[in-house]
Amino acid sequence: GSFACATGRSNMIRRVISLVVLTLTAATLRAEPLLTGVVEDVSAQTIEIPSLPGSWQRRIEWMAPEGSEVNVGDVVVRLDPGDLISREEQALTDLEKRRLTAARSIDELKLEVLEAENLLADAESAVRIAELDASIPLGTIPRLDFDRYQLALETAKKDHVRAQAQLLIKQQELQDVMAEMQLDVEQAESNYGRIKAALDATVIRAEKRGFMIYHENPYNGKKIFPGETHYSGFQIAQIASREDLQIRFWVHEADIREIGEDDAIDVIADAQGAEPFMTEVSWRSSQAINRDDWSDGGYFMVLAKPANGMPQNVMPGMSVMGVRSAAEQDR
């Protein structure tokens, strides 16, 4: 089988001509529309240019060779990281700096809280000593000493109140700074995580086992290749397998009325020794789009499912051609 949609075109056309001759009946003198399409995996992994900070478009540095088989986790696309590497390094430096600043500020305040706790302990001790002195009865000591002990007790109590207040202030400062530093570090972590995720996103890996298939550029009909630059959201490739295959046809607006849902379509693939097989139309678009690289006029999208399974030599990415089956033409 071939994954390149344009190879062996002349051989395929000869086979399709045979197919058309077989499906056209003598009763219908008008020509049936010849449908062109491609085999695709319904559950294929679509690869597109991610939306990354710093630029709305990215250049494709490398892609796994078209048609190559890939496994889950394999690197299939590398994009130009641009300034994301330097931004990631700067964001990491800023994060480490903020963590160090936060740790230093918190440690300094913890030391101040510890000092305030020690001052409070000293104040409590001073109150106890002053209370002992002040409890000496007036008649046992001179009046001057008695008054001095009472004043010392009053002063010790005031100092104790101030020490309690100072400790509460330092504890609150510590809580406030810890919350502020945590928010500051979290913001730096978030910024670093965002840049790191963006940098990681420039390396795209396979999420399923299958074959690498390059997409066509819808603006010029040519295959997308490494070295090209495309905007965010632009689909550049897919990883497909034979798990759930269907046919995507493009039907000219002049022919779309001939194709109805559930119609049977005889199809032949662009593969050596390919045999015709039957599909059934499962969906068709309601609006046409222009394909300037093909011809004037719009084209409708038509999807068809294999009626009795897909032949073994038919693979995702193959070009196909089809025509309504003879039974449909007789209706």
Describe this structure in words.
The chain has 331 residues and is an alpha+beta fold. Helix content is 39%, strand content 24%. The protein has helices at 9-23, 84-134, 143-200, 326-329; strands at 35-41, 45-48, 57-63, 69-70, 75-79, 203-205, 210-214, 229-231, 235-240, 245-252, 264-269, 277-284, 289-290, 298-306, 319-324. Strands 1-10-14-12-11-15 form a 6-stranded antiparallel β-barrel. α2 runs antiparallel to α3 (143-200).
Helical fraction equals 25-40%
Main sheet characteristics:
6 strands, antiparallel, barrel
**Which structural class do the helices and strands define?**
alpha+beta
Element-level helix/strand string: HEEEEEHHEEEEEEEEEEH
Number of helices: 4
Low-confidence spans? 1-10, 20-30
Q: What share of the residues does DSSP label as strand, in percent? A: 15-25%
Coarse morphology? rod-shaped
> What is the overall pLDDT average?
88
The first-to-last residue Cα distance is: 35 Å
- What strand order characterises the main sheet? 1-10-14-12-11-15
| Count of individual beta strands | 15
Tell me the Rg in angstroms.
Answer: 40 Å
